[in-house]
Structures are given as structure tokens and as C-alpha cells.
């Protein structure tokens, strides 16, 4: 069935969908390698997939710690500094080399995380391998235009070096993928800015992390009052007050809470008596026992909560989270607060409301199974047949309509 | 707010108040000083596109001083551009840059997106 090379960056919400996509492709007989951060190696290899580390665990942790300043301000040069400090230009070169080594002419598709996996576009250009960009949240599509501006300005010289090292013309503008996928459903897309030129396959529904619920957490989840599960996801690109305000909200609500945060230094001290900390929790088995989940608005957490029918309250700040939260709230599926309103009484009111009203369990097609079909179609034909070719970025809404008017006039 | 804002400045003020941590108090209020982030700016751009049917220039997303007045001026200029022949020429050039397949895809999809 050919070779499928997956390249992804970020935290669980970005990486786990690719790991599971790789597993599904392998089950279908494809030879799969995932190229990503070192800490995900064991989980990838356990599934019988090939793995190439793009960093070391220490480098990955250092890079995560360096992401918080990216949230503030808009100066172009902060991005160049981030790429340089974290060796990201060299990382793209290493990714491309790993792809080129494994590339089988005529039988390889490269699937990269939207916007960040430039190595996938390089593979299309330099090796002729069909390239797929897969986005995990709509804001990635919204961010494509400024990202391409960054590639053409602040990151231009660094990327020219990357291209030259791969034997590509240093100044040719970046191309477009042969297929662009979005791992969210149509109703979520329609609840905010629409994603043009993107084939939507639905949320990735299964959780890839399987391990026993820690005993103290199990006791809480089986207790008389279902606890609030509090999580800010697995990243560190967070509002500094997130955990403190979330914990204060649970205390104000008088509800027991299970605080799930991987990084010990982010845990507020001292914790109120009704809040218990665990570094990780297998959400797919544990969320069903929660009264509600109070979280940051990461798309992976949103999908997990929808699937397990857990009511959601979102304290959204930064990256894709306010956009995700707005879409969910507009669909009547969550309550949310922007950072300026993170007051214990407001959080407690939303938690009580969520616990009282409950939530429906989402039944939907698995977006990753849909993605496998599209990738196989692309591998067979060289292009996606359902959505047609990906349109240039920015061709949405009125601009698209204006272009259509011109087209109509020309006919 | 004790100064007379233009209608577009007033609209920008309303949009920023909705998106940011604090309401802009004047036309010189700065997006980033009010707690705005680059991805919040993308949501502002999406709302402008929704409300005015114009796509703000990408350079504005990286402007050094993004005040209410600067954002409002960018909207007004984009609207003015949309009204003249230059806009049509730009669209024609954009159309010429599309492949036949892309043009067919656009026509097949219609203008409802």
C-alpha cells in the first residue's frame, strides 16, 4: 500500500491525532513512519510504526518553555529568535532528510501538520511526493496567510538556507499541499470563520493514551460527588493565572476537583482541600466519571469531552482556544470565559450550570478514518477527488464571492 | 470616551472591546497594550471580513503600532480599494494565477462560502 511519512509538531493535541492516523494507516497495510518530538517515540514504536525523533526530550522541554513569550506582541523578529534559539531551521532540514531517505518514488505520501510542516511541502517540490497538510483546529487555517508572510520576511533567510541544503532553489515561493485536511466537523467550522480549500473529516475521536487511572484519582471519580476535572492540556503556552483561577473557581463552587497537569511547577500551592493533583489521566476512561471538565479550550480536550458526554467549561486564552471556545459556545455545547472574567464566582456559576444541565454524548464519524480514505485516494490518483484542488489561502467569504463574480462575467 | 470617533473607529472599538481584556479608551489605544495577541488579531480580521467584506492587508497583522485609528484606516482603505477599478484588476490577476482545475472547483462550489 505504499509508504506514508507523517510529520508533526506541538503537544498532545497536535501529535496524538497523527499517531493514531499512523496506526490506522498501518492497519490498512501502509508502511508508516512518524517524524516528531522525542517524548512521543515510545508510544509510536509501541504501535509498530517507524519513528524519527526531531529533537531530544531536553530540547523539546526547552522549546515548550520558550513558547509562552510567543503569545505576546506581534513583532516579526520574535519568531526569528524562536526559530534560531530552538534550532528549528536545522530541524526542518533533518525532517526533509528523514523523508528523502524513506521516500519510494511513486509510492509515498507525506502528511504534515498544517503550517509548521514545511518539510512536507519541500518533499512535494524536491521529491515529487504528494503532500498533505492536516490542521487540528480552524485557527491554523486562519493563520496561514500571516504564517506565509513570516516565511517570506522574518524567516526568509533561515528558510533559504534550509531550501539550499535540500538542493531546492532558495527563493522559490512555498507551494501548496496537494490536499488540505481539517480534523473537525462541518458544524464546528460553520460556527466561526470558515475554512476554505480544506476538506473537513471530523474530530479525531479516540484517545491514544491508555494507562490505569491513578488510585487517588479513581477514588475521587467513584466518590459521592463527581469531581470537576481541571486541565490545561499538555503544553506550557498558557496564561500564567490559568491554574490558580481554575482551582479558585472549583473551591468557590464547593465541588471536588481533580487537577491534571503534567508540569509540577504549574500546580498552585497550597492546593485547597477539595482539589487533588495528578500529572496525567487517561481521559477516555476517566472523563465519564467527571461532573464536568474545566479546561483551556484545546481542541483535543474539546473532542474528548464531546465524545464522553462530559459538560465543558472553558477558560480560554491564547492560540486557538478562544476561537474554539466561541465555536463551541455558539453551538450551545460549552460555557466559556475570557481571561478578564476569570473570577471565582463566575467560574463557579458556570460549573454549577454545567453540572446541572449535563451534556449530550457526541456521536460522529471518526475524523481520522475519514482522513485515511482521503489519503489513500490521493495516493491512488495523485489528487483528492472530493474537494477539488486546494485553493490559494485567503480565498474565503467575500473575496471568494468577488472572484466568482469575475468568473461569471467571463463565462 | 471624550473624542468624536469616526463610524469605523467606533466599530473597531466595539470589536476590540469584545475580543480584548479591556475596552479601548481612545482612537490611540493600542491593540497589544490592551492585551491583544497575534491570534486574537486573526479573530479581529475574521470579524472585519464578516462585517465589511474586506480582507485587511497581511502587513497590518505585524504593524508596530496597531491603534484603533490605524485599524479603522485600514478598513476604510480596503473598502475604498474594493470600490475602484484597481480591485477588479487585482481580482483578474488572481484569477489568471489559478489553474484550470482550481477555476473549475470554484465554479462548481458557487459563491455561498
TrEMBL record, chain A:
Boundaries of every Glycosyltransferase family 28 N-terminal domain copy: 6-66
Gene3D superfamilies in the record: Glycogen Phosphorylase B
SUPFAM superfamilies in UniProt: UDP-Glycosyltransferase/glycogen phosphorylase
Domain spans labelled Erythromycin biosynthesis protein CIII-like C-terminal: 264-360
Cross-referenced PANTHER family: STEROL 3-BETA-GLUCOSYLTRANSFERASE (PTHR48050), STEROL 3-BETA-GLUCOSYLTRANSFERASE UGT80A2 (PTHR48050:SF13)
Name of the protein this chain belongs to: Glycosyltransferase
UniProtKB/TrEMBL annotation, chain B:
Name of the featured protein: Carrier domain-containing protein
Keyword terms: Phosphopantetheine, Phosphoprotein
Nucleus in keyword set: no
Organism this protein belongs to: Actinocorallia longicatena
UniProt superkingdom: Bacteria
UniProt keyword Magnesium, yes or no: no
Domain annotation Carrier: ranges: 3-79
